[in-house]
């Protein structure tokens, strides 16, 4: 089972955007890739089922329409409350479990050559009373793509996340600096350089501000950037 794990310095930094872009770029390059969202919280109910918005965004961008059985493998743990997985599990009585997630991934891998997994929140978000998102990443052993904001405060969050990944023996394939704010300043210009220097990261990818991420599928510059990252990931996985 081969894949890449997309994590972030926190919530709302653009993990889903990057995961969708990678998925589309992999498939356009001829790699039979499928998305995975192991745990989704804040799920709306649609037709009596909890939907997984992040997963569905990735599928839409890649123009994929899997059946419900595959969808259940792609996102085995879904919760209504918009909170950390461990709290959502405590509320529902069904906790996310890294072993179960990996079992579902193994089943899914029969239908593809590569998996693009997107975490929930940041690196150390707890899954249950004894496991974190990091534990899942370690068990998989895949290259990791860390997504970070581009504005003030991102250096500390990014370096802490890089250090945790490195101490766990995981390979950071790239740090993707997502410029959520529209303005450009000396801070946003310098932040990617600082993250690369102090985090000893060999590959930094920048995503310019997108007013409407929904249009990323038709954004050639963004997909080209993701294609370059895909080639780098394939060399490391």
Q: Report the structural category.
A: alpha/beta
Described by its quaternary structure, the protein is: single chain
Q: Write the CATH architecture name.
A: 3-Layer(aba) Sandwich
The total count of helices amounts to 9
How many strand segments? 10
Count of individual domains: 1
Which strand order does the major sheet show?
2-7-1-8-9-10
The geometry reads as globular
By CATH, the topology is: Rossmann fold
- Could you describe the largest sheet, including whether it forms a barrel? 6 strands, parallel
Order of helices and strands: EHEEEEHHEHHEHEHEHEH
Classify the beta-strand content into a percent band.
Answer: 15-25%
Helical percentage: 40-55%
CATH superfamily: P-loop containing nucleotide triphosphate hydrolases
Task: Report the span from N to C terminus.
Answer: 10 Å
Radius of gyration: 17 Å
CATH class: Alpha Beta
Mean pLDDT: 94
Low-confidence stretches: none
Tell me what the structure shows.
- The protein has nine helices and ten strands.
- The protein has 237 residues and is an alpha/beta fold.
- The strands form three sheets. A six-stranded parallel beta sheet has the order 2-7-1-8-9-10, sandwiched between helices.
- Helix 1 packs across helix 9.
Blueprint of the fold:
Blueprint: E1 3-8, H1 15-28, E2 33-36, E3 39-40, E4 45-46, E5 49-50, H2 53-61, H3 68-74, E6 77-78, H4 85-92, H5 98-109, E7 114-122, H6 133-140, E8 144-149, H7 154-167, E9 172-178, H8 186-199, E10 204-207, H9 220-236
Parallel strand pairs: 1-7, 1-8, 2-7, 3-6, 8-9, 9-10
Antiparallel strand pairs: 4-5
């Amino acid at each position: 089972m081969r894949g890449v794990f997309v994590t972030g310095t926190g919530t709302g930094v653009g993990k889903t955007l990057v995961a969708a872009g990678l998925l589309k770029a992999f498939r356009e390059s001829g790699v039979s890739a499928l998305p995975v969202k192991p745990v989704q919280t804040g799920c709306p109910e649609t037709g009596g089922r909890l939907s997984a918005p992040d997963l569905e965004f990735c599928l839409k961008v890649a123009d994929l329409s899997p059946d419900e059985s595959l969808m259940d493998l792609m996102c085995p743990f879904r919760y209504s409350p918009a909170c950390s997985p461990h709290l959502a599990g405590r509320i529902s009585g069904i906790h996310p479990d890294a072993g179960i997630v990996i079992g579902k991934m193994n089943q899914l891998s029969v239908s593809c050559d590569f998996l693009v997994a997107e975490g929930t929140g940041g690196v150390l978000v707890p899954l249950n009373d004894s496991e974190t998102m990091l534990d899942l990443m370690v068990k998989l052993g895949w290259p990791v793509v860390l997504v970070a904001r581009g504005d003030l405060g991102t250096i500390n969050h990014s370096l802490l996340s890089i250090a945790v990944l490195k101490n766990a023996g995981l390979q950071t394939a790239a740090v993707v600096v997502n410029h959520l704010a529209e303005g450009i300043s000396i801070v946003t210009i310098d932040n990617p350089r600082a993250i690369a220097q102090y985090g000893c990261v060999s590959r930094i990818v920048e995503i310019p501000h997108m007013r409407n991420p929904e249009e990323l599928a038709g954004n050639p510059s963004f997909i080209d950037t993701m294609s370059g990252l895909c080639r780098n990931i394939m060399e490391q996985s």
